[in-house]
Amino acid sequence: MTEQEYLQAYDITAYDRPSLTADIAIFAIRRFEPDSYRHEPRRALSLLLVRRGGHPYKDHWALPGGFVKPTETLEACAMREVEEETGVTPSALMLVGDYSRPGRDPRGWIISQLFASVIPDENVPAVGGDDAAEAEWFSVRFDKAADESFVLRLENEQTLISAKLRVLQSRFGRTSLEILDCGGLAFDHAAMIAEALCALREKARDFEIIFDFLPKRFTLTELQRVQETVTDISVLPANFRRKIADLVVPTGETTEGVGHRPATLYERK
Amino acid sequence: MTEQEYLQAYDITAYDRPSLTADIAIFAIRRFEPDSYRHEPRRALSLLLVRRGGHPYKDHWALPGGFVKPTETLEACAMREVEEETGVTPSALMLVGDYSRPGRDPRGWIISQLFASVIPDENVPAVGGDDAAEAEWFSVRFDKAADESFVLRLENEQTLISAKLRVLQSRFGRTSLEILDCGGLAFDHAAMIAEALCALREKARDFEIIFDFLPKRFTLTELQRVQETVTDISVLPANFRRKIADLVVPTGETTEGVGHRPATLYERK
DNA sequence: CAAATAGTGTCTCTAAGACAATATCAC
DNA sequence: GTGATATTGTCTTAGAGACACTATTTG
Question: B98 contacts in A (CB within 8 Å)?
Fold first, then answer.
C-alpha cells in the first residue's frame, strides 16, 4: 500500500475527536480620573469578560473564546477573538495552557487552549467590539487568603465576582490551580483566569510584557506604574529607572501641561 | 428553553472538530563508559524517537505521541505515552506548545500539543517499552549555524539526522521556529524537538529541571554535569556549588571505589 | 512659595564569576 | 608519589535595594 493509497483510505471521522476552542484572557490597565488634573490617576489591572448569551452557563461571565477553524492555527484563532472583542490587534499572545479535564464542559468533550494578551491603555474604552455579546472590563485582584488558598476578585460598577482557588502545582512557569469556589464564573474559567494572571505577573516582573499596556510613547513613571499594577509589587523610582534604562530610548519630547515637572517620553528599544 | 433541554438537543458532531494528539519529547542523559573506571563518563543529552511503522511518513523518525481519549486530560495522555515508551513515570511534564498549522499532517486536520519530560539516568536503557514500535535514543545537538539559522543534529550509532531551522520569535519563554530543512523527520517534528530543547535549556539554567535527570541520590559533580550537558554552558565548580547549596541536602553517605576522592551523596531538598 | 511629579547620586549588601588552594581516594 | 576528582576560600565586579537629594512645572 502506498502512502497515497493510505491517505485516500484514511477516514479521520472514524476516530474520537474533541471540539477545540481557543480562549483568551485580554488584560489592560484602566485609568480612573483623579480629583485634580495634577494628580496621578488610579490604575487597575483589568480583564475583559463576556456574559454568556446562551446555554450552558447562560448569563454567567466567561472568557471570550471560540471554536477553532480548520484553516487557522490556535494562535490565529485567539488573535481573531481579541480583534473581534476589542478591535485591537495585540502585539503578541502568550500561551497559558490547555484545559482538557473530562467533564469540564457539560456539552461534551471540549478542550480549550488558553492564551493571554495585553491591550494598550488608549484602546481600553472600546468595549464590546463588533461582537453582539455583552462584554465588560473587570478590575482583577488575586491574593493569598488566610488559609493557604487564593482569592480571585473580579469587580466593576455592577458586579462583584469572588472565586476561591488552591495551588496544585507550580512548575516550569505554569501554576496549576484547583477551583474551590467558581464564584459564578462559567466552566473552569476561574482557574483559567487565575493561571493567566500568574503567567502575566511572572512576565511583568522581568519587563517582558509591561510595554504592551502602553502606547508607543510613554513616560518612565507610567511604565513603572504598569509594572507595579500588574505585579502588585512597588519599587523605588531610582531602581526601576536603572533596570529599565537599556530597554528604552528617549524621544526628545516631553509631556505638557501636567501641573508639575514634565516627563521625558520614551519608546521601547 | 432550559439548560437541560439545550444540552439534550446539542449535537457536538455538527461542528468541525480536529483530531488532537499529545506528543512528547522524552529527554535523558546517556552516559558512555570511559576508558578507565577512574575517569568521568562522557555524557550526551538524548532524545527518544520512534520510527514510524505506518503511513504517513512511514519509516521516518518521529516524536512519540498519540490521540487523546475522551476520558483523560492532555497531560495524562502524554504521561501515558511516556510510560508506554519507557516504563518510567516522569515526575513532571513541561508544556512546550501547540502545533496547529493547517496542512501540517497529510491525513487532515490534526493538532498536536507538545510536552517535554525527563527520564532519570538509571532507566535510560529501557528502550522500546511495551510498545511494538521501534524506538531509539538519539544524542541531541542544537547550535547556531554560520548564517542566522540553527542546526538540530540527532545522532546515534546507525543514524544521523540534521535539520535546519530559523527563529521566528522568542517571547514569553517560548521560541517559535520555522523549518528550513526537516532532515527527514516526520511532520513538523523538527521544530517541535528544537522548541522543546529550547524550553528545556531555559529551565535547566535556573536549576528547575536538572534533578529529574538523576536518581534520588547524586553527587554535586553529577548534578553540575547534567546542567552543563543540557545547557551547553560550563561553570566553575565553586560557583555551581554555591548556587545549588540551598536546593540540596547531604545524606551522610559517599560514593565508593571511584579511584579518587569520594563524593558526598545529596538529595533534592 | 506650595504641591506635585521627574530625575540623579551614592551607600550598602548580596550574588556571580574567576582563580587559587587544599583534601582524599586507588594504585 | 601520581592521577583523578572533591571541596573550600577569597578577590573582584556587577547589580539590587534603600535613601537622600535636586529639578521643573502650575497656580
Answer: 73-75, 95, 98, 113
Around A38, how many Cα atoms within 13 Å sit in the side-chain half-sphere? Answer: 3
What pTM value is reported for the model? Answer: 0.95
How does pLDDT run across B109-131, given as a tens digit for each residue? 999 999 999 999 876 665 655 55
Chain B contact for A101, CB < 8 A? yes
Interface of B with A in 185-204 (CB under 8 A): 199, 203
- Measured CA A238 to C1' C9 distance, in angstroms: 10
Query: Which one, of B46, B45, B117, lies nearest residue B83 by Cα?
Result: B117
Distance between terminal CA atoms of chain B? 56
Distances (CA, A) of A202 to A29, A117, B10, B38, B106: 16, 14, 39, 45, 38
Provide, in whole angstroms, the distance separating residue A238's CA from nucleotide C8's C1': 8
CATH classification number, A15-205, choose in 3.40.50.10540, 3.90.79.10, 3.10.50.30, 3.20.20.190 = 3.90.79.10
Going from the first residue of chain A to its last (269 residues), give the mean pLDDT of each consecutive group of 10, the final group possibly shorter.
84 89 97 91 96 92 96 97 91 96 96 97 63 82 94 96 97 96 98 98 96 97 98 97 97 95 97
Closest partner residue to B101 (CB to CB) among A54, A73, A203 is: A73
A236 CA from D19 C1′ (Å): 10
B74/A111 touch (CB, cutoff 8 Å), yes or no: yes
Q: What is the DSSP string of A8-32?
A: HH--GGGS---EEEEEEEEEEEEEE
Count residue pairs from A and B with Cβ separation < 8 A: 131
Q: Which candidate, A59, A78, A56, places its Cα nearest to that of A67?
A: A78
Q: Report phi then psi at B81, rounded to 5.
A: -60, -45
pLDDT single digits (tens) A21-31:
999 999 999 99
Per domain, the residue ranges of chain A are: 15-205, 215-268
Q: Do residue A109 and residue B18 have CB atoms under 8 angstroms apart? A: no
How far from each other are the two terminal CA atoms of chain A, in whole angstroms?
Answer: 56
Question: What is the sign, positive or negative, of the torsion defined by CA atoms of A219, A225, A231, A236?
Answer: positive
Per CATH, the number for B215-268 is 1.10.10.10
Residue A238's alpha-carbon distances to A29, A40, A228, in angstroms, are: 23, 18, 14
Catalytic residue among B75, B83, B84, B134: B134
